[in-house]
Write a structure and sequence with these properties.
Blueprint lengths: L8 H12 L14 E4 L4 H4 L19 E8 L3 H12 L5 E4 L11 E4 L2 E4 L4 E3 L6 H9 L3 E4 L2 E4 L10 E5 L2 E4 L11 H14 L14 H8 L2 H7 L5 H15 L8 H9 L17 E3 L5 H8 L6 E2 L2 E9 L2 E8 L2 E12 L3 H7 L5 H8 L3 E11 L14 E4 L7 E3 L12 E8 L5 H4 L5 H11 L6 H4 E14 L9 H7 L6 E3 L10 H11 L8
Parallel strand pairs: 1-20, 2-3, 2-15, 3-12, 9-17, 15-21
Antiparallel strand pairs: 4-5, 6-11, 7-8, 9-10, 13-14, 14-15, 16-19, 16-20, 17-18, 18-19
The protein binds flavin-adenine dinucleotide.
């Protein structure tokens, strides 16, 4: 979707106010907000589902419904992976309907001043064996190659060093772990957490490829915060870091996610390493200036015009011999008839559009809670002044901040001298803030982002040319305590051999690329049924 035109009423007001002030009083006028505005997601299209959905005459609408052997609803990672799966199986007429103008869902990209930047998802760690479909695809598109029996990443696509840094007590530090406080024994607590993570039950990505054990069940019943309390892991710096990790991956704090999710964060990937015990070399991470929109392009390109943007799926009805889908396209309505339909939509949307949803879908949707997020893209005309400590990294986080830091779109560039760039700042919001995200006035949100970053970068305000904000009302599923209660329902929705199948990261109860991609592949694994 194109960037919104500058909505600069507030800036004008501030300038007029400044002009009216006597000179002596002008010294304290805050610098005006730069240009900016909201860009996607198109919530007003999605909210069509809140109104009455036309059902009468659904099947009679339009003389001849459009036909497809396989129809995928939603062009996020899961939907694109499902469509790829059918296409690889030889289904030529697989089509995808997507609400937004562009494919990608939460992994779409943006550009400001000719610089590509993410709108949401921005990295993919090099996947491990249980995510074998992802590994196979990364080989297919050349991001991995076989070397001495191992998968080796193409370094041109890996995050350049330095990868991460933390703003702590007036200086930048390497990595995201706060420096240990000798007075409170932080280092000893870091070591104890490392040992606890090593002793925890097995975790995997995708998460359903590890069987639940009694130990997983116990961890699932309690919050990560209460589990940490019970372990005596109370050091303030350690707890800030763990809270940050939960908000970053799950959109919610450590007292809202389960201990199973908290430990999964480390156990499914890189483990937890106390300072001095770090992995060598660090876990490879793929990233691009536009974030995971790079991966979206690689998935969507082969599907070409079979991805239909601007289609709001309103109704899905399974009938004898086929599935009918009603979609809004602008003011018009379209009817599609397909042999097999993959509903690659968030579960709460899937439950809303499917007539007579199965009990498993109703249960899984009711058991899923979503975190809202705000993403702010800040276009800078020149690099920010260097501050004490380690140099600029790709991911830059401030200790104690309510936000989750920012990534620098030009970090991956090979230019010899730093210049204009785009910083993408992330905030996981409280669920109570979701309604406020819909406010048309973007300025208070932009002010909030700039204020959060000001202590770290006092010159930010002078450098920012434009602020483009993305609101994600239902950004990601939160793996809250008690997720086990809906595990059977979510498992029942996976894969599928029937005419109506499901695919979305929500099936895992949390949201990352590998989960979405795998869910899509599984939905297309069984042959599609003829129409
Ligand atoms: C801010 C943010 C940052 C993230 N960062 C990362 C990251 O760095 N790495 C990572 O691995 N993951 C990250 N994630 C998680 C990300 O959600 C997943 O990686 C992945 O993109 C989820 O894909 P999906 O297909 O399951 O879901 P979605 O992206 O939700 O796709 C669903 C699609 O359905 C469409 N849709 C919804 N309703 C309708 C309708 N009625 N009709 C038609 N279409 C409809 C949507 O527009 C969307 O395109 C991030 C998420 C957010 C929000």
């Amino acid at each position: 979707m194109a960037a919104a035109a500058p909505v600069n009423g507030r800036r004008r007001t501030l300038l007029q106010a400044a002009a009216a002030l006597p000179l002596a009083a002008c010294t304290k006028v805050p610098p005006p907000l730069p240009a900016g505005g909201w860009i996607g997601a198109a919530h007003e299209r999605g909210h069509r589902l809140r109104g009455a959905i036309p059902v009468e005459g659904f099947d009679a609408r339009g003389a001849a419904p459009r036909r497809a052997s396989a129809l995928v609803l939603g062009a996020g990672i899961a939907g694109l992976a499902a469509a790829r799966g059918f296409a690889r199986a030889g289904v030529d007429d697989v089509h995808v309907l997507e609400l937004e103008d562009e494919p990608g869902g939460n992994s779409r990209g943006h550009a400001m001043g000719g610089i590509a930047c993410p709108r949401g998802a921005h990295y993919l760690p090099q996947p491990q064996e249980p995510a074998h479909e992802v590994i196979e695809w990364l080989h297919e598109i050349g991001l991995l190659r076989h070397e001495a029996g191992r998968s080796v990443a193409d370094e041109r696509h890996l995050c350049h060093a330095p990868q991460e840094r933390l703003w702590f007590e007036g200086a930048w530090h390497d990595g995201l772990l706060p420096p240990a406080d000798p007075a409170s024994g932080t280092q000893a607590q870091y070591r104890r957490l490392a040992a606890a993570v090593a002793a925890a039950p097995r975790f995997a990505i995708p998460s359903h490829r590890v069987a639940w054990t009694a130990a997983h069940e116990t961890l699932d019943r309690q919050s990560f915060a209460s589990w940490l309390d019970a372990q005596g892991l109370s050091d303030a710096r350690l707890r800030w870091y763990l809270d940050y990790a939960c908000r970053d991956d799950y959109g919610a704090a450590s007292d809202e996610v389960s201990a199973r999710a908290g430990l999964h964060y480390f156990g499914s990937r890189h483990g937890f390493h106390a300072p001095g015990q770090e992995q060598e070399p660090p876990e490879p991470v793929f990233t691009w200036p536009e974030g995971n929109a790079h991966l979206v392009r690689r998935l969507a390109q082969p599907l070409a015009e079979r991805v239909h943007g601007g289609r709001v799926v309103l109704r899905v009805r399974e009938e004898r011999g086929g599935v009918l889908v009603l979609a809004g396209h602008g003011d018009a309505l379209e009817v599609w008839r397909a042999g097999t339909v993959v509903i690659a939509l968030p579960l709460f949307v899937a439950a809303r559009v499917l007539e007579s949803p199965p009990q498993a879908l109703v249960q899984a949707a009711a058991g899923t809670t979503y975190a809202p997020w705000l993403v702010a893209n800040l276009q800078l005309d020149a690099p920010l002044r260097a501050r004490p400590g380690v140099p600029a990294a790709w991911d830059n986080v401030a200790f104690g901040s309510r936000m989750l830091g920012y990534v620098d779109a030009m970090h991956q560039s090979l230019r010899p001298v730093p210049g204009p760039t785009v910083l993408t700042a992330y905030a996981a919001l409280a669920r109570s803030e979701r309604a406020a995200l819909l406010a048309p006035d973007w300025a208070p949100w932009a002010e909030r982002v700039l204020a959060e970053l000001a202590p770290v970068h006092p010159d930010l305000r002078e450098r920012v040319q434009r602020v483009d904000l993305v609101r994600w009302g239902h950004a990601m599923a939160i793996p809250r305590p008690g997720l086990r209660a809906t595990a059977a329902a979510r498992a029942a929705l996976r894969g599928g051999r029937g005419r109506v199948r499901f695919a979305h990261a929500d099936l895992a109860g949390y949201s990352i690329f590998e989960e979405a991609f795998t869910a899509g592949c599984e939905a297309a694994a069984a042959p599609c049924r003829c129409g």
